[in-house]
Amino acid sequence: MKFEDMSLREQTIAALKEMGYINPTEVQEKVIPLIVQGKTVVARSKTGTGKTAAFGVGIVERLTGGTAKKALVLAPTRELTLQVCDEIKKIAAKYPLKVVGVYGGYSINPQIQALKKGVDILIATPGRLLDHAERRTVDLSQFDVVVLDEADRMLDMGFKDEMDRVMEQIPKERTVLLLSATVDEQILGAASRYMSKPEIVEIGEKEKPQAIKEEVVEVTHRTKYTGLKEVLRKHSGSKVIVFASTKIFTNKLADKLHRQGFTTDRLHGDMSQAAREKVLKRFHDGAFKILVATDVAARGLHIEDVALIVNYDKARDDDTHLHRVGRTGRMGAEGKAVTFAERAETRDERFSDDHPDFAWMKKGGAESYGKKPYRREKRPQKRGKYSGRRHSSKKKPRKY
């Protein structure tokens, strides 16, 4: 089948030809007709199978055919938002449709100016979209077609509450399209909340369950850092994510490892969006092997060849632990997770000085969160005629 055989408008076919699209992929062939018919759809298909063009062609046809007013596309990350925005602009190139992307990490003012000029297709990350809704720079009640792109990643990144808040402001008479690489209980739960009797389209084989070997290493507070170095040396050359509990300690641990010869960098919530993107790109490209991170990296970090996860500090709950270890063993590959469990020291261990890292851990361990140890300040010695002895401010009587 060719796009010309799918009863699409000539302008759409011309735009697709300019993009080099002649024959639709399987997901495009099955999903586009359903969208054009106004059906709600849950589509499972792996990344790289043409899902963006599938819903892009569908919503462009709906809007230009007068069967829909405005379309909203929710995406989990800024990178995906930009990619989808660029793709849909090309598909809609032959029509006077206004396509706008809004996302966090950058100034909101240019986005406000773009929205004031009008929008037909809005591509957005959930947080920034709600920011615009609160500022009343966008009216969500005007959108009657909603696409939840990579819905599994949005849920994995903890956007469920934001997704619910967005969908509450969308009219009840709407068409919802949910696209995901997996269809599990979370996805089916989202479908039941947002959709009524959706058409389910599944393309290709389901992803294999994650193959992750988990190991618990018992350590004392003093031997914890030494144990970390041993684990990292055993996995020399592999990509590793080390999870720490706080931003301050993440910086201290990354710096300490770097000074001792490990190629490291850090990732936490106090970093700007641009800085975080730069770190992730360098990690993806192999510029360094060990990423020390807070739980900001536990959700939505998709680096395919992470071989090891180290829980240097325990996760605050079971759900966070699952998200942490889920950063390895992706796409059916085998992964490993090591969790350090602290125990109390024995008397012999407490008075032992055989640990070269004890001095550093005493100054900045995980539990001290980077605070400097208390030291009593010495008072500066007075220097002068009367230093070191008491004297009265009253003038002494003159002797005759």
Outline the structure in words.
The protein has 15 helices and 13 strands. It is of the alpha/beta class and 400 residues long. It folds into two domains: 200 residues, 3-Layer(aba) Sandwich (Rossmann fold); 154 residues, P-loop containing nucleotide triphosphate hydrolases (Rossmann fold, 3-Layer(aba) Sandwich), CATH 3.40.50.300. The strands form two sheets. A seven-stranded parallel beta sheet has the order 3-4-2-5-6-1-7, sandwiched between helices. The protein has a six-stranded parallel beta sheet with strand order 8-13-12-9-11-10, with helices on both faces. About 4% of the residues have low confidence.
Brief sketch in words of this structure:
This protein has 400 residues and is of the alpha/beta class. It has 15 helices and 13 strands. It has 2 domains: 3-202, 3-Layer(aba) Sandwich (Rossmann fold), CATH 3.40.50.300; 211-364, P-loop containing nucleotide triphosphate hydrolases (Rossmann fold, 3-Layer(aba) Sandwich), CATH 3.40.50.300.
